[in-house]
Amino acid sequence: MSITSLQAGVNTVTEARTGTTTRHPAPRLRRGRRIGLAMLSPSVASLLLWMAVPLAMTVYFSLIRYNLLYPGDEPFVGLENYHYFLTDEGFVAGALNTLWLVLSVLAISVIAGVLIAVLVDTPFFGRGIVRVMLISPFFIMPTVSALVWKNLLLHPVSGVFAAVWRLFGATPVDWFAEYPLLSIIMIVSWQWIPFAVLILMTAMQSLDQEQKDAARLDGAGPLAIFRHITLPHLARPIAVVIMIETIFLLSIFAEIYTTTGGGPGYDTTNLAYLIYSQALLQFDVGMASAGGLIAVVIANIAAFVLVRMIGRNLTDKA
Amino acid sequence: MLTLKQTRRLRTLLLGTLAWLVALALFFPILWMILTSFKTELAAFASPPELWFRPTLENYLHIDERSDYFHYAWNSVVVSFGSTLFGMLLAVPAAYSMAFFETRRTKGTLLWMLSTKMLPPVGVLVPIYLLFKQFGLLDTKTGLVIIYTLINLPIMVWMVYTYFKEIPRDILEAARLDGATAAQEICRVLLPIAKGGLASTVLLSLILSWNEAFWSLNLTSSSAAPLTALVASYSSPEGLFWAKLSAVSTLACAPILVFGWLSQKQLVRGLSFGAVK
Amino acid sequence: MKTRLVPVLMASAIAMSSTAWASTTVTIGTVNNGDMVRMQKLSAEFEKTHPDIRLDWVVLEENVLRQRLTTDIATEGGQFDLMTIGLYETGLWGARGWLTPMENLPASYDVDDIFPSVRDGLSVDGTLYGLPFYAESSMTYYRKDLFEAAGLSMSEQPSWDQIREFAKTLNRPEQEQYGICLRGKAGWGENMALVTTLANAFGARWFDEAWHPEFTGPEWTRAITFYTDLLGQYGPPGASSNGFNENLALFNSGKCALWVDATVAGAFVTDPSQSEVADAVGFALAPKEVTAKGAGWLWSWALAIPSSSDAKDAARAFAVWATSKEYSELVAERYGIAAIPPGTRLSTYRNEAYMNAAPFAAVTLTSLERADPNDPTLKPVPYTGIQLVSIPEFQSIATQVGKLVSGALSGSLSVPQALKSAQAVSEREMKRARYIK
Questions:
Q1: Which DSSP symbol is given to C341?
Q2: Single pTM value for the model
Q3: So what's the ipTM on this one?
Q4: Please, what are the domains in chain A?
């Protein structure tokens, strides 16, 4: 803890004991600033440490030729690692796939999430169980859900989908070969719709029922209520969903690793997977470090754009 | 002609049925996994898939014989609850400070925190491995708790921050005017109001830690290995393994699933923003 | 699960009381295939006779295990005392000095009984670095019943062209019976193992004498065109995501007429508890084409001790036990003689009881005898290894090429496109690694 935070702590204690707090807002605010800083600093400090040490090492590694399988041979190579990463066959495909994956899953999960949240908002028989079932997929480990989808559902011979297809006389679809990216999007959406539902469902609880009733009495139809009351109310939770999902979707990895291994070709390789294949198949730490740093830059650009778009919803008080 | 009441009842019935259908569709993969875990390996691969079959416990018995489930489960529990606890201890004050004492740098700090999430774990595996080796943290629960606390912290700060932001400032002002200290303010005023939001943050952190499979596989070997490592040991490269894998997956997901189900009720009940608005 | 509690408590009580005199813990990192799981079960016997050694198991899926072990050994993490590693790693890591030489083995262990090709593969400059737990080559599995019904007959070593004819005749997708199953899932240990042996048979090689890759040459083009046609036309749907395991499942459930894959599968396809076609399987050597050289691969899982281990003697004691004749006898006694870990010891194949009980043993033996990593291809090469090239870069190159080949198989890339990219990728990597300018 920093000195400021200690002082702040002491101040609070003495003040609490003596009860001599001033009631003027101005000094309170200044003291508040200090308390604020003190409370923020542990988080910031630990994250700084977490960021700084590995990051510094990563930057250093990215500038040397460092392959785990060639110990002792680590010359400085300048930007060679960056060059090789950026000109990798899979880089452009990886960047595009990352973009597609993030955008489609975001769209699917937010739209489905809103609809489902609205759907389960009115009481009906067994609502509790329905809610539980709706959010359950989110509790399943990514590896497990990928394995279940791949082997039990989408398998072109013994999967459930194939059986349904055959039931209707259609030829079973070979999902991972014919629609590889779509299959991945399906799996990932299945995992993240529940997250959107969870957040939006709880947010619906705080929607003012009276407001809705009043609007209904004024003759507003369900669609109008949805558009003018529900959606604006959900704006901030939707922003939260988008923000958090983006962070995780940018680094989707387990699902790809377990199902398609980035293939066929580069059809399902995203940046996270590309870096993985370089780091852990090749054990080329130099290149993986360069790739990691490039991914950070890309992710930050994405975050910046995103915050520009939805940021107002997040930080400003409505 | 239907009366208003009847229309409404009909609508509820229709919407309810629809909700049930959607929920069943989303839940189906999990249900299927659980069913498969009670099949024999041959039945699990049968085509067309068998809906009616003779349930068997052989997969569970096999797992019980081969690995010590409780060892892994205990590690998962300790690591995810430990990291969630530390995460909340760090996140709540930070979010409080950012939500109520906003400065010019608040937005920047928030963004920066999030950007720490964006460094792909594979990119920093070797640095972390070397550091962990240096500090003797390899294959320890402490090591995993540290890692999970740090990787989940940004998300937790964000979530708590947004929930705090929901709280009308007048309530805080009122408390302040009554002479409450910062600590009192957090404990007596903020936490009760934001209970639901905090609960969902805790739940999210628990789930993320429970399901995290990169660090847990790479930084542990035996004594600190959590359930994700157990699952990884059943995705076999040889022989039929779907049924066993389903069984071990069911076992690995069951605790957090049940926990989620139980807390979900509390969650929805606890979220009472409407009351304070 | 409730019944479990008592044994757990008892076990922990025993564990606690035994820590007083159990001086050494050996942490074993191993892959989770059938034979290894069996070894884990039987290891209780070892612990009984070696009360001073405690075994700690880390069982992981192959790819995860490989990355885990490599990270640990390269950073000298010291997390493992005994590792299950492949032929490929043993050679590379042994040469780096990361492994402890397997010296001073007891006379009863009889090192000379190990297949010479396997022993060579696990040695660097004559020093043995890993004890083979099992070894495999590849061979052709076919359905005798279907062959008979269609009036076909299999030769001792068919050619790929013959295989194609067989597959064509026996392909009946409407009955979910497919002409041939082959690996299509991308990975250097998955599709590339098969594809490389197929390419070898077509006279191709990974690199010429000056380490230049040859993917755009006529041999590779013919081989990959043949492979994608064969599997695309007469293979099961989803072939591009089928690895060893998926194909085994398909074959065992009677959906494949032919299958070319690892010899270890012999024990699985003939085991009635997991195979619906246990009695109907025939065996032949892996197919040849313009040459029989390098048509069948050579692979072994071996136990090796990292130099960073602090329990080397205890680890060696266990490795010796788990790969000994005594262990084979133990497996034979508990699980039946056909379940003996195959491919490591000549004496196993001199045992008549085994040869009779295991219908696949004779072909396995011939395949292993013919596999020569030092002379793998028609044209000369600068490397050793049949389905692999024993340089550290191979994993990464073959992984990328494997993706491209599976792309060609699924149809998302054309064969010339895939091969052109494969050539570019491998040239790039070889340049980066300073093999070529």
A1: P
A2: 0.81
A3: 0.84
A4: 1-45 (no CATH), 81-315 (1.10.3720.10)
